[in-house]
Amino acid sequence: MITADQLLVKQINKSIVLNTIRKKEVISRAGIAEFTGLNKSTVSFLVDELIHEGFVKEIGPGESKGGRKPIMLTINDKGGCIIGVDLGVNYILTVLTDLTGNIIWEKKVDLRLGEGQEKVIELLLQSIAEAVANAPKTVNGIMGIGIGVPGIVDYRKGTILMAPNLKWRDVPLKDIVENRFEIKVHIDNEANVGAVSEKWFGIGIECSNFVYVSAGIGIGTGIIINGELYRGASGLSGEIGHATINIYDEICSCGNTGCWENYASERALLNYMYAQLERGNQDKYINHNTIDGLNALSIIRYAREGSIIAVEGLKEIGRNLGIGIINLINTFNPELVIIGNTLSLAEDIILPEILNEVEKKCLVYKYHRIKIRTSRLKLHAGAMGAVSLVISELFAHPDIS
């Protein structure tokens, strides 16, 4: 008779084997046993199960160290597909990946700022339906849907408690999507999924302690401590974009006064540009004729083309990002701070300003030179983080039978 304890041990060992193959990329059964300390016969049995379930595949013989050549193993990219969605304030980016995170298909839909909840959800469901339609035939089909959302999320229930910039409250998004597609859905805050994506696929792979700053329409942070996402007591950590840095400022979309994102977000950049135009400051790139088409991407483009106003606006945002990052460094003393989302695309302009502020004003930085980088994943960090939510769950519990 197999006991519950034995089943649990088997599940843990199976996850260890699968994640060892993922981390090593290519490894033999003997290599797994040596690396993990598991019995060779246990490893062989679990690998056979993982091959049968479509998670792992054999790719032929490796180099011999004396005796027979070992059969090498790797993750089966044809084992299944994952859908990841970055639900932004002004866009929806949907990706379809294989089991190793390679993007097979993607689509970006622009949203009008202030678009109604029903319309946004309709466009979200349409994007997911297109991803489903474009999925190739695999062993296990679509194995999950991950969604990153800019707001406070009850990740266990998949409910958006509050998304200030979307103006959503108590939206049961997990239930809505699962009822439509009958596929398991994982939902989390977009900065959390951005942090997870950097840990799985980006520049945070080798770091155990780092902070991911999502600098888009708003600002959110995802915090990795000892290699794991830090959620706080009730799963709501990371809302540092709503930390107060000026008690005398205007009201933020969250209802607080003087939040960091009022000064250092894409929305703050637009407000800066509008203020410059009102004062009569303009150039051949940014003037009253171009005001209707202004957004962060166009401002970055104008800066590259030579707009002095655009460059100065981005520098101002960089300095203000630096102020918040100083507080993050002084609080968490991380190895690395990663800046992602739209504003990271202006790395050459904003990063020197951030570093200058940090070097001048950060207490901890004087004693520990924390690395500050922009995301390699760029605008894909949120969508790939949503994919990571699904893959991490599958790889923690690789028993789909």
Structure in words:
The structure is a single chain. With 401 residues, the chain is α/β, with parallel strands linked by helices. It has 3 domains: 4-75, Winged helix-like DNA-binding domain superfamily/Winged helix DNA-binding domain (Arc Repressor Mutant, subunit A, Orthogonal Bundle), CATH 1.10.10; 81-197 and 381-396, Nucleotidyltransferase, domain 5 (2-Layer Sandwich), CATH 3.30.420.40; 206-375, 2-Layer Sandwich (Nucleotidyltransferase, domain 5). 40% of the residues lie in helices and 21% in strands. It has 12 helices and 16 strands. The chain has a 5-stranded mixed beta sheet, sandwiched between helices. Helix 6 (190-200) crosses helix 12, helix 9 crosses helix 10 and helix 10 (308-332) packs across helix 11 (347-361). The protein starts with a helix and ends in a 5-residue tail after the last helix. 43% of the residues are buried.
Tell me the layout of helices and strands:
Blueprint: H1 4-24, E1 27-28, H2 29-36, H3 40-52, E2 56-61, E3 71-75, E4 81-87, E5 91-98, E6 103-110, H4 117-133, E7 142-149, E8 152-154, E9 159-163, E10 168-171, H5 173-181, E11 185-189, H6 190-200, E12 210-215, E13 219-225, E14 228-229, H7 261-264, H8 266-278, H9 296-305, H10 308-332, E15 336-340, H11 347-361, E16 371-374, H12 381-396
Parallel strand pairs: 4-7, 7-11, 12-15, 15-16
Antiparallel strand pairs: 1-3, 2-3, 4-5, 5-6, 8-9, 9-10, 12-13, 13-14
Helix pairs in contact: 1-3, 2-3, 6-12, 8-10, 9-10, 10-11
